[in-house]
């Protein structure tokens, strides 16, 4: 037992721990700029050990981006997103999208940085557009309902809304210890919701 | 005369036209990933012709980013940004920053994408932070004045505000002809100002 803990075995790597390393390298070097060699070096395991878990770089991208997409699309099925007024559903989606973005920060960062022409990248871009369209439809519904202003076109409003939310991947860094991190995340989530729906102006 | 117009001379390139090509290549390939060879090919002139105008890649970055910075810092000296309530000054700055971003789209895009460790890149990042700090100070002043909500910390509000504005470089593309482009830019500028200060909710 002592021997085992002193010398971690190669197969102590799971797909999840491999993904955690992979997503970091993809975010630093870009998906294009990352080789299996880079991943092997960063993970501290051989390429053949990586191939034991996945078919290659493209599958790693699909798994990492898939984790972000599962989180985001999962929101749209939550009761808060399926029942109530369009405004209440949109508020739920904005709040939860920001929460998921902060909770899955490296994975959503990768999703938002994907560019390019491989099949896996095109698929990620397509899924991202699909999510944006679902939210834009909700914005349009809330405008029709009369609870959102009608003078900003829903598609434009949605783009600016996601501009604000997605900018978090550029600067948000969780604090060192868990409790502070949680407080700070909650503070950011509240600020996004308040600014999105009510803007900077003081009430009254 | 006819001969001259049929055979453009190398020195018909000015620093401005060279910059227009350069900024496009930097935005496509990244500053790091661009060689003088790439620039020479994209501009259709020899490397020595480029060296006739500038010392090298780093000077091109400084000039291109400088154009964006001149536009942005110029706003802070405009009468609308120096007189009136803090709220009125901030509204002017938000409106004009969005206008300048759209008018100088490729140059501001480059400024916002700069990462890295060369002196020119560090200088660009430093200038960008300085601009953000100046706006954050104005936000703080407007909070003190009572015209902006006090429940969102000024630095956080400023980051989210710029998140929304800066996201334009990711998706805004001017329409084909000038007049349409102008109408569409004006519409986007108005939408940013409205959402920033009043949010998505319908009034009342």
Summary?
The first copy, chain A, is an all-alpha fold and 204 residues long.
Outline the secondary-structure elements.
The structure is a homodimer of 204-residue chains.
Chain A: H1 2-6, H2 15-29, H3 36-43, H4 47-53, H5 57-76, H6 79-82, H7 86-103, H8 105-113, H9 119-145, H10 154-166, H11 168-171, H12 178-198
Helix pairs in contact in A: 2-3, 2-5, 2-8, 5-7, 5-8, 5-9, 7-8, 7-9, 7-12, 9-10
InterPro entries (chains A, B): Homeodomain-like_sf, HTH-type_TetR-like_transc_reg, HTH_TetR, KstR2_TetR_C, Tet_transcr_reg_TetR-rel_C_sf
Organism (chains A, B): Streptacidiphilus jiangxiensis
Protein name (chains A, B): DNA-binding transcriptional regulator, AcrR family
Provide a descriptive summary of the structure in words:
Chains A, B: Pfam families: TetR_C_24, TetR_N. Chains A, B: Residues 12-72 form the HTH tetR-type domain. Chains A, B: Keywords: DNA-binding, Transcription, Transcription regulation. Chains A, B: This is DNA-binding transcriptional regulator, AcrR family. The structure is a homodimer of 204-residue chains. Chain A is elongated and about 60 Å long. Chain A has a single domain (11-198), classed as Tetracycline Repressor, domain 2 (Orthogonal Bundle), CATH 1.10.357. Chain A is an all-alpha fold and 204 residues long. In chain A, helix 5 packs across helix 8 and helix 5 (57-76) runs parallel beside helix 9 (119-145). The first copy, chain A, is built from twelve helices and no strands. The longest helix of chain A is centred in the middle third of the chain and has 27 residues, at 119-145. The interface between A and B is large, with 38 and 39 residues.
